Backbone:
């Protein structure tokens, strides 16, 4: 065997052994013995993993910089390049980058570099779309252009199993629908946008679970669950601020704004119900109960937001703020709990981060201005140091309870 | 990589390329039969982090004012014949007529035909063109003495950006006179054709 075949063989062995351990065919000890037989020790594996991560980070960063550089260079000198040449350059760069990415990823041992070149290809496609738009003086904040890019990039992420491309697409997945619906349906009613994003976050979270039950797409599960939870948490956090409730509009047109809310609610109900009905959704009853409880709350919250008009009564506003502050804290802790149960450390981190952010910002809200500025900062600094230590200890203790290898 | 994935990947790359080409073709076809008009503008020079310099074009026809006091009076010819609206984010057609070397607005309507616009305005309008825009702001202004009321309408046309060679935006911004040649098709869609800086085509 030549060296590239050796590497491919070892890669395969490592992957297979992991699956065998997960399925209970062999134990962790037997996995180590087999790896040692092939001369692969734990140290070498750890070092290999570190290098893999470094290669991914460096090559993805490199691809992003090359893409950005090319787009900037062409964009800055766009007027001096003839129209036809611009189009030919755009088209050829997209084809060439995709071909080189394919060749490196699937035909050579430089798989990770190949994946980064696919990332570069996505950058070049996005850049080409913007530059061609520039040719016709179309505004860069035209969100329909972003949707066009999404249609070109997201399928590639699925086909080549690229987490980097998938994460790149998530930015558009989060912002495009809200912007589009706000333009099409509302007169900038903030209630509708908040109501929509609560449900949209839940839907992304549930789509993450659907991905976890497929053989080919489960590598995207973590990203989707994280993004969905983050969206819902972000909306819930904004609702803890009193300023936002004063922005609510009165006299809203409920139709046709209600259509996306109904559609999202129906989708959420169908997906969550399927967890109870389908056999391959294996969840602990306790987790399923907690999850269903939280999702039901979020659906009700969305409908509450949709029908709420401007609140002028200060007492009611105070009551609502207290409730929403408590709810945000509960939601953060629930996400931490779900993260622990599902063994997803990114969710644990997200939940803990949200809790810390909540405590920190509320501390600022309450005490800023109440005590002397110098004393305030000294106490804040001390609390931050203590909080950082406690946070790290809690996080470590939680993460030690499960294997960090996520799907 | 499996054969089916290989086919899918090729298909997506082909679609990426085809979508770029189709976009170009659509833009070219949309304005293949169009009239070129010249509009007066005031440029501002910002910078786009991804695409270098561009100038924001603030058109004369983007700000329309009517004297609402005269709307129901006998001397209707001194008042613009704009429809009454309070709501914004509305698609409108702005009707333009030639006035010297530029085109100026003489009416605005939510309908393509202009409804009562032509029966109310003076009959001297022999040549006109309509441009589709979006009504973004409606401001009611009352004169301090309370004798006259005005209504200011702001409209965007999607032709407010013009991309230029890097570091040249300031030159355009500081020019004495900037006009824009705009292609307008029969549906009222508009597209920037060229920039006229102090009477010369830019760059």
Residues:
């Amino acid at each position: 065997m030549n060296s590239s075949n050796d590497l491919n063989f070892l890669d395969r062995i490592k992957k297979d052994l992991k699956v065998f351990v997960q399925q209970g065919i062999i134990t962790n000890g037997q996995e180590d013995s087999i790896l040692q037989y092939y001369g692969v020790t734990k140290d070498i594996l750890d070092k290999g993993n570190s290098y893999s991560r470094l290669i991914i980070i460096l090559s993805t960063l490199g691809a992003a910089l090359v893409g950005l550089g090319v787009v900037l260079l062409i964009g800055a000198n766009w007027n001096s390049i003839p129209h036809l040449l611009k189009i030919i350059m755009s088209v050829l760069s997209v084809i060439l980058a995709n071909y080189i990415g394919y060749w490196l990823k699937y035909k050579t041992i430089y798989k990770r570099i190949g994946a980064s070149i696919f990332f570069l290809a996505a950058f070049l496609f996005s850049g080409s779309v913007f530059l061609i738009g520039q040719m016709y003086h179309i505004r860069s904040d035209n969100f329909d252009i972003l949707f066009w890019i999404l249609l070109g990039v997201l399928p590639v992420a699925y086909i080549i199993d690229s987490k980097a491309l998938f994460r790149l697409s998530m930015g558009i997945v989060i912002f495009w629908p809200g912007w589009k619906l706000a333009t099409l349906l509302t007169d900038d009613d903030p209630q509708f946008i908040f109501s929509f994003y609560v449900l949209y976050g839940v839907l992304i979270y549930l789509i993450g679970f659907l991905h976890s039950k497929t053989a080919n797409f489960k590598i995207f599960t973590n990203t989707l669950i994280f993004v969905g939870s983050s969206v819902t948490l972000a909306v819930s956090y904004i609702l803890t601020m009193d300023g936002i409730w004063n922005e609510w509009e009165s006299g809203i047109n409920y139709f046709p704004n209600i259509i996306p809310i109904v559609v999202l609610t129906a989708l959420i109900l169908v997906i969550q119900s399927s967890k109870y009905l389908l056999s391959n959704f294996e969840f602990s009853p306790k987790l399923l109960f907690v999850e269903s409880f939280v999702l039901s709350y979020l659906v009700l919250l969305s409908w509450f937001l949709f029908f709420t008009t401007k609140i002028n009564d200060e007492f009611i506003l105070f009551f609502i703020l207290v409730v929403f502050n408590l709810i945000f804290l509960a939601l953060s802790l629930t996400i931490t709990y779900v993260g622990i149960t599902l063994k997803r450390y990114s969710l644990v981190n997200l939940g803990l981060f949200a809790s810390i952010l909540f405590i920190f910002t509320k501390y600022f809200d309450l005490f800023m201005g109440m005590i002397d500025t110098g004393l305030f900062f000294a106490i804040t600094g001390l609390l931050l140091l203590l909080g950082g230590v406690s946070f790290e200890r809690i996080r470590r203790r939680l993460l030690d309870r499960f294997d960090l290898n996520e799907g | 990589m499996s054969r089916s994935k290989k086919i899918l990947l090729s298909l997506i790359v082909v679609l990426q390329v085809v979508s770029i080409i189709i976009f170009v073709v659509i833009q070219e076809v949309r304005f293949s039969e169009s009239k070129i008009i010249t509009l007066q503008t005031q440029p501002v020079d910002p910078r786009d982090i991804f695409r270098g310099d561009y100038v924001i074009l603030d058109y004369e026809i983007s700000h329309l004012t009517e004297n609402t006091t005269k709307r129901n009076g006998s001397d209707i010819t001194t008042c613009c014949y704009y429809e009454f609206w309070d709501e914004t984010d509305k698609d409108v057609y702005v009707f333009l007529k030639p006035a010297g070397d530029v085109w100026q607005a003489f009416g605005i309507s939510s309908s393509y035909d202009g409804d009562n616009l032509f029966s109310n305005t003076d009959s001297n309008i022999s040549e006109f063109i309509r441009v589709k825009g979006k009504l973004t702001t409606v401001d009611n202004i009352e004169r301090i003495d309370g004798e006259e009321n005005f209504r200011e309408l702001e409209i965007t046309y999607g032709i407010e950006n013009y991309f230029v060679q890097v570091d040249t935006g300031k030159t355009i911004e500081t020019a004495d006179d900037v006009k824009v040649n705009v292609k307008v098709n029969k549906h009222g869609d508009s597209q920037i054709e060229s920039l006229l800086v102090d009477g010369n085509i830019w760059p």
